[in-house]
Amino acid sequence: MNRQIARLGLVGVALVAALIVATTYWQTWASAGLADRQDNEIQRVAQFSIKRGLIRASDGTILASNRIKKVGGQKLYLRRYPQGGLFSHVVGYSTQSRSRAGLESSMNDYLTGANRNLDTVLKTTLDRIRGATITGNDLWLTMRPGPQRLAMRELAGKCGSVVALDPRTGKVLVMASRPTYDPNLVEKDFNRINNIRATCRPAAPLLNRATDGLYTPGSTFKVVTASAALDSGRFTPQSRFFDPGYCIEYGKQVRNAGNPEAPETFGSVDLITGLEHSINSVFCNIGKAIGAGKILGYAKRYGFYEDPPLETPANERSPSGLYKNGELFRPSDPRTQVDPGRLAFGQERMLATPLQMAMVAAGVGNKGVVMEPFVVDRITNPNGGVVTRTKPRKLRRAVSRQTAQELTQMMEGAVQSGTGTAAQIPGVPVAGKTGTAETGIPGRYTSWFISFAPANAPRVAVAVVLQDQTGFGGQVAAPIAKDVMQAILAGKANP
Amino acid sequence: MTYRNRELANLVVVGILTALGFASVYIARQDIVSTASLSYAGFFFALYLAAHLVARLTVPYADPYLLPMAALLTAIGLTEIYRLNPTDAFRQGLWIVVALCAFALTLFLLKHDYRRLESYKYLFGLSAIALLVLPALPVLGTSVNGARLWVHVGSLQFQPGELAKVFLIVFLAGYLREKREVLAQGRLKDFGPLLLIWGGAMLVLIETNDLGSALLYFGIFLAMLYVATGRFLYVGLGIGLFLAGAFAVYHYVEHVRERITIWLHPWTDHAVYCAINGKLLPRQDCASYQLVKSLYSVSHGSWFGTGLGKGTFRTTGGGELIPYLNTDFIYSALAQELGLVGVAALLLVYMLFVSRGFKIAMLADDGFSKLLAIGLTFAFALQTFIIVGGILRLIPLTGITLPFISYGGSSVVANFVLLAGLLLVSNRANAERE
Questions:
Q1: Where are the beta strands (DSSP E) in B52-132?
Q2: DSSP of A270-319, one letter per residue?
Q3: Which has fewest Cβ within 10 Å: A177, A359, B134, B385?
């Protein structure tokens, strides 16, 4: 019988060995994947025992802090957002039942002290051994509360977004999106967020329209087309065009803005006037001359067709570009697949995020160099020491210095005597471009304004978008851009 | 060193480990746990010293590792139960006292010659069946989680299946010892009683809706049949019959079918019909909720675990994150707090226990003793595999207890009787060699 017993013994031992192998699988191999699952609350709950790092605006205003709750003898650090819905699209939320969003999600490692920087690793390990509460690192954002508050106030009751960048560094100074939500309600009263009413459909209060909202850029895109026209050497600001009120494409008239029966007609104009008065036929003809491929090429230089670099989660950012059936469309043969005339003035399935259009304005203002936008200025440990500091990084040069200068002059003209006069700031030269994009519904437009100031040495670049407007970009969006720029420039003068 | 001195030395080590375990729970949860918790360790050590003295008197030559290992496992279980729910730990402590009494009683009654049990084999067999049928009786039985496994007498709750397991092994050891030559010849008429047992196991499965116990009883039976006859054919035939039976049950019993579905597809991306509340929900939020939450708990432990007393089992609102932690899912609680390093060590203790059991069977010199030892040992190994394998999604999850660790009186008592049996066999074999 002993031979049978030995064999059965092997089976018995193998059964237990299989358990060790299976445990190893779940605890090592499968562990990370399971921790990220939406319905897995354990890791999130466990991380509430960590004293999560604070999130602060550039002047130290606290955007996210902790509220201590005792459960079963354990201290839990739950989140509190003192600024309510003012910064919610960037800061996001950290909850048990609805997981995390915004920087609370993407910067979770830093906020919980799980980042791999040596001094953090040493400190958290020591805390863990001592049984002390682990404390996360604090985020200091580049955002300015005053201008942010102003932008949110001006957007109130509308659907839209304002993005303001420092063109020299890429710092995000303002990132406003409406409708917004109160992150303090996410855990307890999510229905109130879901049932919000707005002038647009869907209201999508959780959507960060600044980085994830895609809108037809309309005439603001003419800056990109003009970049291509000038930088390629095919046109100069003085190149002349004849505008009969329309441009002929594929044998059909593409009309200028205004009353369809009697569109604006300018006759013989140069490119400067074409941009100042946003004449569609001029850009339509440029588009036909240089081709869609060239325009898209310059758009890519400004950052189109790539996820805009920012610290927020990747799924809260969308690339700008041509879209087809809800997907980014990369034409293999732009000459036959894209209508160059309509693309030239920002229609033709072209969609852009407010952040992207702010990058265009900032790139022109910064002498042709686009900087990578960033919103986390520095991360500090609980003692105040700096863990990392973001260094401004160049995304790439979009156009030559000379082209940038010519574009700046043309955009200044648009504010001085063109479509964007509402953005004038007394004593400060402003460069800007309006946009009024068709939405497919007659009488309803997406209104845009992009600008930077002071035009000769810009310290701020802004993009404003408003959904479902009846007014033109120059009438509704330009005043908001002006106020935000003014607030930012004033703040710099007396900090 | 003599057998018993070695056992004492091992027990001292276990005592120190137990004290450390309770101390770490105390440190981690000072706010709600009192210093009285440390007295558990002292109480526990005293209890096992008593058990050791009983062993000294009754089975001086028995294996010196089994009792310390059982002590270690119960200590780990008690520490974790204490960490989860101090009130349950108190009751479990009482059950351990009862179990050690049963342990002592078994040893004292059978110290001269346990082999006389062989003559009562049919009595054991019948009692086993009676115990198994008990929960199916309308007045006494209660259903927990869709499986009828419990007997209620007043406020007392008992799971008779646990004891039936030991009785069944005694019966099989006696029966197979007597019939092994005949059975090995393979004449069909000799298989009558065995087919009867197969039918019994299937009936139990259908009556109690419990796949786990059926698998356990049938596994024990096949293992013992194989050792007795040495014929693989029977094992193959047995497995085939079991699968056929299980397949039929799968088709006719909703509860079993659901268990299999949960096992194969615990996560769904789309909403499916939820029988619990009639809504449409992803399966992980409904039928496979327990399994999935417990897997999350295991995986959260990672390499080194959160540390005893530091695991996450409750939501920020204080609600339960993982159901049935004390009993069926205690392994997932341990896996989270001790990590891979800890539970791998724990499983190695189980493995060691199993290998000692098989060694005892090898050393025993008569058929009844050998069969008894492998029956008891294999039952222990298979039960561990069925519950932990269920938690780890190796096999469909069924609610049976983890030997020595899970909260539950009947389980602890039955396992200490099982331990007493192994010590008796070991004592006899070693005494004859001395």
A1: none
A2: EHHHHHHTT-HHHHHHHHHHH-HHHHHHHHHHTTTTSPPP-SS-GGG---
A3: B134
Longest Cα–Cα distance of chain A, Å, equals: 109
* CA-based nearest distance B136→chain A, Å: 31
Separation CA B327–CA A26 (nearest Å): 21
Could you tell me if A126 and A170 lie in one domain? no
Q: Do A5 and B358 touch (CB under 8 A)?
A: yes
Would you call B355 and A9 a contact, using CB atoms and an 8 Å cutoff? yes
pLDDT at A259 over 60: no
Does the beta-carbon distance from B300 to A31 stay under 8 Å?
yes
Q: Are B257 and A42 within 8 A, CB to CB?
A: no
Q: What is the rounded distance in angstroms from the CA atom of residue A108 to the CA atom of residue A102?
A: 10
Among B269, B293, B316, B351, most A C-beta atoms within 10 A, so best to mutate, is B316
The angle formed by the CA atoms of residues A149, A150 and A151, to the nearest 5 degrees, is 95
Q: Does B107 fall in a domain?
A: no
Q: Is residue B141 part of a domain?
A: yes
User: Using the beta-carbon criterion (under 8 Å), do A9 and B347 form an inter-chain contact?
Assistant: no
**Residue range B153-177: mean pLDDT, rounded:** 78
Query: Do A238 and A281 belong together in one domain?
Result: yes
Give the model's confidence band at A494: pLDDT under 50 very low, under 70 low, under 90 confident, else very high. very low
**DSSP secondary structure code for residue A132 in this structure:** P
Whether the pTM exceeds 0.90: the reply is: no
Dist. CA A228–CA B9, nearest whole Å: 86
Domain shared by A326 and A442, yes or no: yes
Percentage of chain A lying above the pLDDT 90 cut: 59
What ipTM is given for this predicted complex?
0.90
Do the domain assignments include residue A15? no
Please report whether residue A114 resides in a domain. Answer: yes
Least-confidence region, from A293-302, B143-152, B205-214, B397-406: B143-152
Two tokens at A122? 């040493």
